[in-house]
Prior knowledge:
This protein is α+β, with helices and mostly antiparallel strands. It is 39% helix and 21% strand. It contains 14 helices and twelve strands. The longest helix is centred in the C-terminal third of the chain and has 22 residues, at 255-276. Residues 4-184 form the UmuC domain.
Amino acid sequence: MRKIIHIDMDAFFASVEQRDNPELRGKPVAVGGSRARGVVAAASYEARKFGVHSALASKIAAQRCPQLIFVKPRFEVYSAVSRQIREIFFAYTDLVEPLSLDEAYLDVTENKIGMPSASIIAQEIRKRIKEETGLTASAGVSFNKFLAKIASDLNKPDGFTLVTPDKAEALVASLAIEKFHGIGKVTAAKMQRMGILTGADLRQRTEQELVQHFGKTGHYYYHISRAQDDREVQPHRIRKSIGSERTFETDIAEEEEMLAQLDFLAKEVAHDMERLQATAKTVTLKIKYFDFTQNTRSKTYLSDFSATDVIYTIARELLRTPHLPNYPVRLLGISVSSLLYPHDKLQGYQLTLDF
């Protein structure tokens, strides 16, 4: 039986800003955007109490929380802190699978300190993160990735949750369906219309029925409803694409709002590319309309790129080609593919020997 830890930093971007600027502590903070335009990239817990969250239009955020303080993102600082945290992870295991700058899975079934208790390791990691970075992290511990991810979210912020095998099925059965990792807003809404409101309801459906309604992902839903997940922690996963997308609370129709969202998404994609040391040749724009119809627009280049402004410029061009969306948009997404990693580029050079 595996011992899996999921570490998730608490309001990461906003917490870094509050750490570095004492005047922001205890106050509602939004990273990204401004009162006039833009999109919130992250929100402090003080801001979340007012309904401010990531991907929310800044204008709406300011309306919900008039005292909201907008701060310009410092992605280079967030990346540096993320590397610092990752070094702490590697002190315990090499089986680390980063999901983003602020979260990761760790497999500590066999670990570098010979500690049999995953709970003790998780608590020690949280303590070291606090001491070395001044930030708090929440941790979930269980015997598979799905349960560890669910557990880390149960007692945020600064929380710890252990899900043992004897408690797993009861926990999953009690969860509201929208709390399931891997079930997004649209899928959750569809399940709710089918009468699937909790994990217990999901477990009542046959695998065949779930596949019929949700395609191949139905197999995954069938197994997680039974607390089953055999995915391994993958420390060296080679990704074929990198992307980010946002579903909006209210459908958007103005070009300015769409461009603000694309700017935010381009920054997220570019920083994931930087973290993975990847470049790309293809950009794909995903547009989902108010009626759930969807289309994608892509463009491929001969030379590779990774800069935020390049990704944004291409996405902006795709948004306008052949024309701007004619109907209100409920989701926008940017992804890059045809990825190149450092070892791919090295293979393109012919080595010579000097005789």
